[in-house]
Structure formats: C-alpha cells, structure tokens
Design goal:
This protein has helices at about 75-85, 95-110, 125-130, 140-145, 155-175, 180-185, 205-230, 250-255, 255-270, 295-300, 310-315; strands at about 1-15, 20-30, 35-40, 90-95, 120, 185-190, 190-195, 195-200, 200, 245-250, 275, 285, 305. By secondary structure, the protein is α/β, with parallel strands linked by helices. The strands form 3 sheets. It has a 7-stranded mixed β-sheet. A 4-stranded parallel β-sheet has the order 11-10-12-13, with helices on both faces. β4 (about 90-95), α2 and β5 form a beta-alpha-beta unit. It is elongated and about 85 Å long.
C-alpha cells in the first residue's frame, strides 16, 4: 500500500475555470517513508491573477512566473497525473482537497480530456474530526505550526509534504495505520467519477451540519413569528413615553421571541414604532455584550442605545 499526498496551485481561479500551474505530490509507504517528492510545473496558458479564497488578498507563489512559459501544458502532463491518482494500490489525500479535485475537473473540461476517476481523503477533515471542531476550517499553515512541521507555503510539493506530516502525526496519536485511522474516525472518502464529485464525510461532520441546519430552521421560524406579530401592530395614536420614537433590536434580541414580542407590544402601547432598518431607528436595543454587525453599525451611526434590561425597566416604570 502507498499513500499519495497532492496539492495544486493555480495561476487563476474562477467559477468556470482554474488554470493549474503546479501539481506537487509526495508518495510514501505505509510507514510514511517518502518514496518520491516532486513538483510538476505546468504552463497555465494564461495570466497570473492570484487572490485568496475570498477573491481579495493577493498571494505570492514561490516560483518565477516567467519560467512557466517553458513548461508543458496540463494536457501534456495529464497522463502522468492521472496514472498517479488512479493507482489502485494507493490512498489519495490532500488538505482541503475538495478544491484541488474541482480544479482538476475544470482543467479536464477546458482541454476536453476524460474525467479523473479516484477516491480521496482530506487531512483537514481528519484533523477537524479528531478535535471534534467543525466550526471553521483549519489551514495547512496553522496545523503545521501546531505540529512543528517546517515547509514553504504555496510550493505545491511542500504543501503535499506538510499534509503527509499531519496525517502521520494523527496516526501516531492513535497508534495506528492510515486505513485504521479512517475507521477510528468514521471518515468516508470523497470521489470523482465521470466529472461528478462527492465530498469526504465523517459522522461527526454530518452531525454538526444536521445540528446547524436545525438551528437555522429554528431561527427562521422565530423570525417569521416575530415579523408576523409585528405586521399586526398599530401605533397608539394617544401617544406615550415613546411617541415619535422608532426602535430597532439587535438580531439576537429579535430572535429571542419570548423577550422581543412582549417588548414590541409594550413599544407600540407606549406610542412607539419598530423597524429592522437602522436608517429609521432613533433608539437601538441590544444586550450589553452584543458586538454583531448591526450593533456595530448602530454605534458607528451614533444612534442612542439602551440595553434590553434598561428598556424593560423604562417601559415598566
């Protein structure tokens, strides 16, 4: 059995294409003894437009960009890469590997080549499952630093090496082989076949996503109930202590309908109005600890502020 770790760098990435400029890989045996490490540099047949995943911050690859013109195209190196990744005696792994598999898929479409067909595992998912934290992604540099792995970021072969060291460290913690590791962590491989891609999964990740979906649905239900109640309100024309005032709650307060709905009732009874739009707001209500975007915007606009407790005390006075 062999383990093949790979990483891809692109000259530019868009929704409909990804121009690969480097395919780095490390092949090792089941004991993580390196058999081969290589950077396959590729002429991307396009300009370098380097940004992060948000499309904002520019990144710098540790290569001389002008040199790429002399390298073979993806079409020319495709047979080598395909043979490596489709080797039936190898496990294929990458870090946040779903992106790299998508890049391969886009390049085969660009050059009208047959699809790749192989299964793959993700060191990022393995690490997240190991620590049981799926709230955010863990970058290769972050994990490598924690595990004291030295490498050159964005050099494809070195990224593949760092990925290998992460998996080796996890196997060391569990005192097991890689096949035993994926069984212990209940991780299922992803797959690319005939241009279709399925992502790697783990029971922990599925459970996390199911819980997140349920919480989102509950927040949506509460918002519907809150605004349905609000739609039935009419201003008390007799006026009161809030006459002429329009109040806005933070999202967190809105979502606590056991608190927000009775407060809205009292606001309208006191001659006030409610609006979720800050440009109509004359008094903003949040908890003392709230630091969400709406609350920051209200502070930046210098809108007068009360805590929930202060408003409750004011209306009950």
């Amino acid at each position: 059995m062999k383990l093949v770790f790979f990483d891809i760098e692109c000259a530019c990435v868009h929704k409909t294409y990804a121009k690969i400029c480097a395919f780095g890989y490390v092949v090792c045996d089941e004991n993580f003894k390196i058999l081969k490490k290589e950077d396959i540099l590729i002429n991307p047949r396009g300009r370098f437009e380097l940004t992060d995943r948000k499309g904002e911050k520019g990144i710098v690859l540790p290569y001389e960009y002008e040199d790429f013109k002399k390298y073979p195209t993806f079409k020319e190196v495709y047979p080598r890469i395909k043979a490596l990744l489709e080797d039936k005696d190898s496990y294929i792994l990458g870090h946040a590997v779903l992106n790299d598999v998508k890049y391969l898929n886009l390049e085969t479409r660009r050059y009208k080549l047959p699809s790749f067909n192989f299964e793959f595992s993700d060191s990022q998912l393995l690490f997240m499952t190991h620590i049981n934290d799926f709230t955010h992604q863990f970058g290769l540099e972050h994990i490598a630093k924690e595990l004291q792995v030295e490498f050159t970021p964005h050099r494809a072969a070195d990224d593949a090496y760092a990925t290998m060291k992460i998996v080796e460290a996890l196997c060391g913690k569990y005192e097991c082989s890689f096949p035993e590791l994926i069984m212990k962590l209940n991780v299922a491989s992803g797959k690319i076949s005939n241009g279709q891609i399925t992502r790697p999964q783990s029971k922990g990740f599925k459970r996390f996503n199911a819980e997140k979906k349920a919480k989102r649905a509950e927040r949506s239900r509460k918002r519907i109930e809150f605004f349905n109640n609000l739609s039935r309100k009419r201003v008390n024309r007799a006026g009161g202590v809030l006459k002429g005032k329009t109040l806005t709650f933070s999202r967190a307060v809105e979502d606590e309908i056991e608190i927000s709905i009775p407060l809205v009732d009292k606001i309208y009874a006191a001659g006030g109005r409610y609006s979720a739009k800050l440009d109509r707001c004359s008094l903003y209500i949040s908890s003392a600890e709230d630091s969400t975007a709406r609350t920051k915007s209200a502070a930046a606009a210098a809108i007068p502020h009360m805590t929930v407790e202060e408003l409750q005390e004011f209306l009950n006075a």
